[in-house]
Amino acid sequence: MDTDRTTMENHLCILLPAILPYWELELHHGSAKDYLKRAIESLASVSHVSTISLLFVPTPETEQQRSQTIKPPPAAADLDWSWCPVPYTITELSSDSWHEALTVVATTKPTGTVSVFWGDSPFLQIQVTKDLQELHSTYRADFTFADGYPPGTAPELLNPDTIPSLLSLSYKHPSTIDRTLLFGLIQQDINAYQIETLLSDFDFRPYRLELNTSTRRNYLLCKKLSAGLTPEVLKEDPREFINQIRSRQKDYRTLPAYFSIQISAQCPQQCSYCPYPRMNPGLLNDTNYMPLDKALELFQRLAEWSPESVISLSPLGEPSTHPDIYRIISYIDRHLPQRLLIVTSGIGWNPEEIKRLVPTLKKTQWIISLDAVSEEEYQTLRGTGFHEAMSFTQTMLALSPADVYVQAVRLKDREEQLLAFYQYWKGKTENIIIQKYANQGGLLPDRKAVDLRPLKRLPCWHLMRDFTVLLDGSVPLCEQSMGNHKPMGNIFKEEPKDIWDRITDPYHQHCDQNYPDVCRDCDEYYTYNF
User: Fold this and answer.
1) Which residues fall within 8 angstroms of residue 371, CB to CB, at 6 or more apart?
2) Neighbours of 398 (CB within 10 A)
């Protein structure tokens, strides 16, 4: 029987991280909790909302925050929810599985539209939500979502009659709850559903904004944007809402998401496309390294400043040559909130230590730079060590296949060899990285195979999100400026925030399309780490 959905009582499914470290910190018009309360009140009055399911999700961010050495943040379920103006139920999910979450929603037996959104996203736009609901009702959709808006500014709408099929789908194709909400699950069988889309007047997807308070970096972004995103703007014409976010591009930069740290000067290879041999001609025998106590202190400082980030070893030099590399890996993985990324040639590792250590790691990933699958080609590009690197790669894929990536740099006149690399490895792993060649700001010759620059230049991701530290503590503007630009400071002599703040002006110049000399001809601005 066809029923008019507008007369039914609708249901809100509000997802929240199980840990809410920034939930009660102030934005410009209250805390994230206050924003959620106003959103629920508005939805209750305009959307006939009668019940709410609060689902607390154990996310990867949650696990990071639990492991912080700073004061642990509060658990969401332990907070006071009595302010909620609509009858609600609280469920602490045991996993981040959509199957479990949908099972909980099904028990509420909703008759009207189910709206799903993250409750730690303070900028739910009410008019966009109303437009979504009208679209959903008019076309009697199974699933309706907004496309092109920043994630967190609109809910996804679900026909309750669709829940049984989604439960079956989530059982056959286990899907985790993330910031893409239900779309990641539905696309497993996308043709089975009637889907409607509300398009934004401006496409925010290239900017990768995350308007939620789940991390310190995202909280700071929300705090900056909240000055213009008043409660009135969140209720009125979406065009003003869009203009407010669009016009604040300089505020998108908050904290580093990616720390690239050099811990050793030595490297066993002089790769033909790498700037390091020119910067350090004695790299094969350079025994300098960052002392263990100094390295651990540095990692701790960075963790306290930007806890939900990635530490990468290493922009220059080979991590395996550090005498305490296994202790460093273990310390970061077990005691710090950050994830760890190790970029290595695969040469110099102790097989027994690797077999002992790798199975114990929980949040460490590896990129093994190989470039070739024939010894002759390998020697041309990288030098000696082919058999050791290949053996290391096979060992790592056996120990931790999901966390190991093989990498080749794409170079001019080597497309056939690159294809051979891909064909060789695709049967052994899905984790294959084809890296863009970079000429290091003109330090190296142009060996780029193809120009992939976007038609419209955006501000540099690396100035916005990356922070590089060299062996002596010097911090370059970015990895591409190493060797051809004055350092921005020294992390062993000053606070990282002070150095980071100095990089703000070059980033703002990018926003104004006025590029510093070192950036003008660089084409790494559109590449993205984390």
Assistant:
1) 271, 377, 378, 381, 382, 407, 408, 409, 421
2) 11
For residue 68, pLDDT over 70 is answered with no
> Which residue, among 163, 133, 162, has the nearest Cα to 145 in the 3D structure?
133
DSSP calls for 120-150? T-----HHHHHHHHHHHHHTT-SEEEEESSP
Q: For residue 205, what is the DSSP state?
A: G
What stretch(es) of the chain map to CATH 3.20.20.70? 258-519
Q: Strand runs (DSSP E) across 314-399, as ranges?
A: 339-344, 364-369
Q: Is the backbone of residue 208 left (phi > 0), alpha (psi -120 to 50) or beta?
A: left
Token readout for 444 is 């190296």
Taking CB atoms within 8 Å and a gap of at least 24, the contacts of 68-75 are 68/303, 68/307, 68/337, 69/300, 69/303, 69/304, 69/335, 69/336, 69/337, 70/304, 70/307, 73/19, 73/20, 73/21, 73/22, 74/19, 74/20, 74/21, 74/23, 75/18, 75/19, 75/20
- Residue 177, helix vs strand vs coil: coil
Q: What are φ and ψ of residue 419, in 5° steps?
A: -65, -40
Q: What is the three-class DSSP state of 54?
A: strand
Task: Kindly calculate the radius of gyration of the chain based on its CA atoms and give it in whole angstroms.
Answer: 25
d(CA 480, CA 105): 49
CATH number of 10-251: 3.90.550.10
Mean pLDDT lowest among 42-51, 181-190, 275-284, 386-395: 42-51
The amino acid occupying position 248 is: R
List C-alpha distances in Å: 377 to 222, 368, 416, 421: 49, 16, 11, 11
Helix (H, G, I), strand (E, B) or coil at 395: helix
pTM: 0.92
* Whether the Cβ atoms of residue 341 and residue 319 lie closer than 8 Å to each other: no
Give the integer Cα–Cα distance in Å for 118 and 12. Answer: 11
CATH number for the region 258-519 comes to 3.20.20.70
Amino acid at 65: Q
* pLDDT of res. 71: 53
Domain boundaries for CATH 3.90.550.10 within the chain: 10-251
Q: For 256-306, what is the HEC assignment?
A: CCEEEECCECCCCCCCCCCCHHHHCCCCCCCCCECCHHHHHHHHHHHHHHC
Q: How far are the Cα atoms of 157, 407, 457, 526, 527 from residue 453, in angstroms, in the given order?
A: 36, 21, 8, 7, 9
Whole-number Å distance between alpha carbons of 439 and 445 = 6
